[in-house]
Amino acid sequence: MDLDAVTKQSALHAKPDGLTLQYGTAGFRTKAEHLDHVMFRMGLLAVLRSKQTKSTIGVMVTASHNPEEDNGVKLVDPLGEMLAPSWEEHATCLANAEEQDLPRVLVDIGEKAAVNLHQDAFVVIGRDTRPSSEKLSQSVIDGVTVLGGQFHDYGLLTTPQLHYMVYCRNTSGQYGKATIEGYYQKLSAAFVELTKQASCSGDGQRTLKVDCANGIGALKLREMKHYFSQGLSVQLFNDGTKGKLNHLCGADFVKSHQKPPQGIEMKSNERCCSFDGDADRIIYYYHDADGQFHLVDGDKIAALISSFLKEPLLEIGDSLSLGVVQTAYANGSSTRYLEEVMKVPVYCTKTGVKHLHHKAQEFDIGVYFEANGHGTVLFSKAAEMKIKQLAKELEEDKKRKAAKMLENVIDLFNQATGDAISDMLVIEAILALKGLTVQQWDALYTDLPNRQLKVKVADRQVISTTDAERQAVKPPGLQEAINELVKKYRLSRAFVRPSGTEDIVRVYAEADSQENADSLAYEVSLAVFQLAGGIGERPQPGF
Ligand code: 16G
Ligand code: MG
């Protein structure tokens, strides 16, 4: 390592004195103006990680659903997964080192992680459409080059597309071609194949309205839609030509406000969906004939997909294990439906894709979705090989068709991470194959009314949780207070957890009616405020 060169270059990306940040659930995220040094240093870190793993590493510049003024960065590990936890710690140390300590910290990481410095390094970079992203990704490149790393800058990409590129490159193209056309072709071909079998179920051309959150999803979907135009026509809204990124639109807005985004025309019973700012989440919704808004969230996507998969799996007669992974935010009705009606095992992990992804890898077929619309389906290598073999070998027509269908499903899901575009195509294919309307899909089960609130506290780390965040172990008395409050309502449940992305505590409550869910959420917020060091205004009832 040429540490003198690092010191010199770093001075051009100097860290503001006293600023400390943490590599959280979704990497580093804060106001864009505070991130230049972090980007440079993540370029350095990506080189070390690449040398250590002897693989291509990804760096994505995005702040997803956060406001346009924010930005962020995360590293993508060799198989398209989130960065390994020990490296999250290295990332935090490196980002927070004062200028003069930077060379020492860098050498330290190299030693701790046993990095062979003579190894070559290759880093791929992608960014979203934020005004700050281009300059920040240049700072990443500066970091990569000063340590002698090679790089390829993909420019504008959705986050899942960058994960895909990393995965392709580290499997020598076996997963797909590491180009944007490669991505479009792979997914569209699988979609077209899959929907071919839906020929009889048709209202002909199917149409879907997509709210792109004024983000990167609009650019990429516009490029891609020609590839699958025969099976599906998508109409783009909030495509970034007028509105501001994530402002009153996008999947996070729709899910948390439980209302439609601005800038989309919804007629009754029309199928609509929203992406988030970097297109790794998707949420569906519609207005019924009475003008009432219905949200079809990540839980219902998981329910649709798992019930769809069960049939061909049964047909091919091979006992591949299927499991669904959720978080504490999953609606109680969805868990009940999956376990009691669908008879599939359901597991709960902590919030954050890496936890769900990890758990889903334990099954032959692991369906994971967060209620907020982030998820995918993972097929183990063994399951994939088995299915591909059956698709070739099975004699009986019906069975071979089922295996072929599963083969297309494997190709259509982004196996590297949750992907709004890929999920959208899977969902549209399933609806077409099953001849389902969005209302019929929604009717799989009825969501329990729920409410999410935020509480400001002096230090959110005074709350610690267990049991996949469903129980608070600290501060003392809080869980007991929640238990007492929950007892007051029917079909009720509530939990609290410190946010991993904002300086607040999140409160979730569900109950038999909206009024009761609202009251419970308010009462739990008050308990948090009183027992966990609330600051500012006390929580107020009413929404
Ligand atoms: C991040 C996570 C998302 C999680 C959310 C929770 C990834 C790629 N994204 O956006 O999965 O739901 O954080 O945020 O892991 P919170 O901790 O503020 O509630
Ligand atoms: Mg996102």
TrEMBL record:
Keywords: Acetylation, Carbohydrate metabolism, Coiled coil, Isomerase, Magnesium, Metal-binding, Phosphoprotein. Gene3D superfamilies: Alpha-D-Glucose-1,6-Bisphosphate, subunit A, domain 3, Alpha-D-phosphohexomutase, C-terminal domain. Mg(2+) binds at S64, D276, D278, D280. The keyword Cytoplasm does not apply. It comes from the Eukaryota. GO terms for biological process: carbohydrate metabolic process; hemopoiesis; UDP-N-acetylglucosamine biosynthetic process. Its EC number is 5.4.2.3. Residues 51-94, 105-167 form the Alpha-D-phosphohexomutase alpha/beta/alpha domain. One of its GO terms (molecular function) is magnesium ion binding. Pathway: Nucleotide-sugar biosynthesis; UDP-N-acetyl-alpha-D-glucosamine biosynthesis; N-acetyl-alpha-D-glucosamine 1-phosphate from alpha-D-glucosamine 6-phosphate (route I): step 2/2. It catalyses: N-acetyl-alpha-D-glucosamine 1-phosphate = N-acetyl-D-glucosamine 6-phosphate. Belongs to the phosphohexose mutase family. This is Phosphoacetylglucosamine mutase. It comes from Sousa chinensis (Indo-pacific humpbacked dolphin).
